[in-house]
Amino acid sequence: MGTTEVTRAGSMRKRVGVGVAIVVALAVLVGVSGVSWREIVGELRTMDPLLLGVALVASLLAQLAWSSSTLLFLRTVEPTVPTGRVRLGYLTGTFAKQVLPFGHAGGVPLMAYVLAEEMDLEYRGTFASVTASELVVFVASLVVAAVGFGWFVVADGVASGTELVVFGLVAVLALVALAIAGFVKRRTAFRRVVHGVASVGRTVFRRAGPRLQQRLAPEAVDRGLDEFFSTFDRATSDRRTVVWAAVYAAVGWVLFALPLYLGSLAVGQSLPLALVLFVVPAAGLATLLPTPGGLGGTEVGLTAAVVVLAEVGLETAAAAVLVYRLCSYWFLLLIGGASSLFLSVGLRELR
């Protein structure tokens, strides 16, 4: 085994270790919080199966809506990419993001790799197209969260004592929005960041061989950035494409939020739809934890937000969130795994 493989294996073990530690810590936290699992199971046993079915469909439709956004940007680079394979590739990429530690944090490279491999596309062009798509999807999440927050404040008001929590969530989302704006508008600063990371990489992996050193050389980094920005600009130059991609992205977020709303109805508690539109996109920040799909952090964070902001019982909130995660994580894991298997057995002519 070479030095590069050893380094990668060690890095992956560290990521898995951190992820496991976080899951264990969250499990201990839940265990000492006084949650009655018997009551949660009781809530789930009374769940309406029809509402669960609708929630599952909504979760899948959300993925298809986001894949439509990716498809639009990919076709600015390669107009003949088949719709069916892009959708299957997107579901496969989602599967990879859900099962790997830091999968969501590295979602763009993973998704670009899967799509490029499945359709024999050039990776850098695919990476730029997927970056454009993911940026639009993320901006749409901020818009949906802002609309949900405004609607919730106007219609229901913020419970006394929760203002700090709400302010913190809004502040984090605003900072992320500013970071995205900086990426789009201040490319010189972005170049400096990339060159800084490449410099660190050259130092850390100086024994990994000349090939990696050449790829991280300043000239190679500049060429890669020039090609990336050229493809990114081409993908986003058509305003009609961007608008339709944004529409698909926003529809996807509304559909992705519905399972939490339907999950609450399924266990006999109606959460405000406005609150759901706010907390589900905001909970996406928990997927940046080094656990597969934000496992543990998303459940704890969403349950806490629902309890604090909707003022419902802890067990009822936990049951609704578990229904939501069944639809938005475990079900999509199954669908993504099936898509990956379908593509891997050689059935590549789907249109």
UniProtKB/TrEMBL annotation:
Q: Where is the signal peptide?
A: none
Q: Please tell me where this protein is predominantly located.
A: membrane
Membrane-crossing residue ranges in chain numbering: 16-37, 49-74, 94-115, 127-152, 164-184, 242-264, 270-289, 301-323, 329-347
Report how it sits in the membrane. Answer: Multi-pass membrane protein
Query: What keywords would UniProt list here?
Result: Cell membrane, Membrane, Transmembrane, Transmembrane helix
Q: Where in the cell is it found?
A: Cell membrane
InterPro entries noted in UniProt: L-PG_synthase/AglD (IPR022791)
Q: Which GO terms describe its cellular component?
A: plasma membrane
Among Pfam families, the record links this protein to: LPG_synthase_TM (PF03706)
NCBIfam families with a match to the protein in the record: flippase-like domain
Q: Which family does it belong to?
A: Belongs to the UPF0104 family.
PANTHER family xrefs: UPF0104 MEMBRANE PROTEIN MJ1595 (PTHR39087)
Q: What is this protein called?
A: TIGR00374 family protein
